[in-house]
Amino acid sequence: MLLQTEAFEKETHVIVDYAATEAFAMNENVLGSLAFGDNEQPLKILGDGFRLAVHRDQVSLEPGFLFDYTARYSNELENVDVSAIVGFPVLQPFALGLDFEAEELSLTPAADADLRQVEQDAAVVIQGVRVIDNQVHVPVSYDGGKRASMSFGTAGYHTYLNQPIAERLGQPAGNVDDIAFGAPPVLGLSGMVALFPQPFDEPPGDLDVEWLLRSGLGLWSAYRLEINPNAGYLALTPQKDSNYSEADAAFYAAAAAEDIPALKAYTQTWPEDRNIEEAAGRWFDIGLRSGLPDDAQMEAVATGLSVTPERRKTHYVSGFVFPLFNSESKDERSSLVIALCEEALEYIGRSDRPSLRQNIQLMLGDRYLHAGNAHDAWKTFLSAAFYGDPRLDGVVRHELGRAYEALGRHRRAYSSYKRAAADLTPTPPPMKESAREGLARLRPLLDPDDPLLKEESSGG
């Protein structure tokens, strides 16, 4: 795709997310360089036989997913980044066509769609598609013909089954065998893909039937389809007998049951499956909640690392350590934070995110101090200062002050705290206050004639 204005042009990929509520969310770096001509309003999205216009007021910042997505799939994307997500507010005026065999996506103005032609071209046409709270809902049936709804999505792979309904049906692993498109049913859906039982959010207030499914591309890639919520239909032509995967089913059942032995068995049976990273993440999260020891938690991380490219390994491990360090479990699982930080730093020299080094070192040094290992904390903070980001200078100086104080090196500690407390140093307010408290603690321990104190008394 080409993003274009009079003053800006970028070759890129975009994600088409039919369930996204933001019209056009852009990567921070690309959004920062986006410019418009005088009085220009639309951002044009251009491709082969494809043209969209998004009003500049509809462009927003996406939360950071795209940077990681691009890094993860850079080879498949041929090193062209993914810089935006096209959401439902932009797509709603169109009939969306997807043909995965031909690798084609089409957008036809909804009013121009010819339903009679659609009915001639498709195997089935499901009527009753509607928009509720900016979500597109497709009628489905289950359990002997009961009416239900499936929300239509195109961004992810999984198709999710409402977990309480699965449990009520006695199928906690998701093996519900009589789900069909349409109400009344017109085309079987069960068996086309494995279904992932998960809790759903509260259903939209205007949804008058049970919310049974949230669809993903694993399902839709078995069909040629056209969906037109304005005209109320979904047209389907099967292109495969089934996209059902035993590996998916095993992972979904284990994840739904929060069964670590089953998750581990899945990763051992299908060690290169597409879901290994996600399985490892769930294994780790369940282990945290159930108090698994550090070695078991690091086994989960190692499982995810086994399918992670070398350039992404530091970033992958950081996805475990940052939330844990910022959680209430930080002290209880301090040794695990240390193990994760040390693991992440093993790969930093080959990482596509070298800027992570300093943040990881700051966490590691903090945990060394918590463990009473002031010497290693000092070495780690000193290394963090060497790889300095100016925006973190105050944090590094404060942490060095803590390490020097723990080592009994009072002059060094005082100097570091003084730097952290300085008005021009970008130190977070709580750390700035902590640095001032450190100065007050250390001042009586210094020689009254110490130059550090004389500088203060003279206003230096």
What does it look like?
With 460 residues, the chain is an alpha+beta fold. It folds into 3 domains: 2-91, no CATH class; 110-243, Beta Barrel (Cathepsin D, subunit A, domain 1), CATH 2.40.70; 247-457, Serine Threonine Protein Phosphatase 5, Tetratricopeptide repeat (Alpha Horseshoe). It is built from 18 helices and 21 strands. The chain has helices at 28-33, 65-72, 88-91, 115-121, 163-168, 217-220, 246-257, 260-269, 276-290, 294-305, 313-325, 334-346, 356-370, 374-386, 393-406, 410-421, 429-442, 451-457, and strands spanning 2-5, 8-11, 13-16, 24-26, 42-47, 50-55, 59-61, 82-86, 94-99, 104-109, 124-127, 130-132, 135-142, 146-151, 160-162, 180-181, 187-188, 196-198, 210-214, 223-228, 233-238. The strands form 4 sheets. Strands 12, 13, 14, 15, 16, 17, 18 and 19 form an 8-stranded mixed β-sheet that branches. It has a 5-stranded antiparallel β-sheet with strand order 10-9-20-21-11, with helices on one face. A 4-stranded antiparallel β-sheet has the order 2-1-5-6, with no helix packed on it. Helix 13 packs parallel to helix 15 (393-406), helix 14 (374-386) runs antiparallel to helix 15 (393-406) and helix 16 (410-421) runs antiparallel to helix 17 (429-442). The longest helix is centred in the middle third of the chain and has 15 residues, at 276-290. The mean pLDDT is 94.
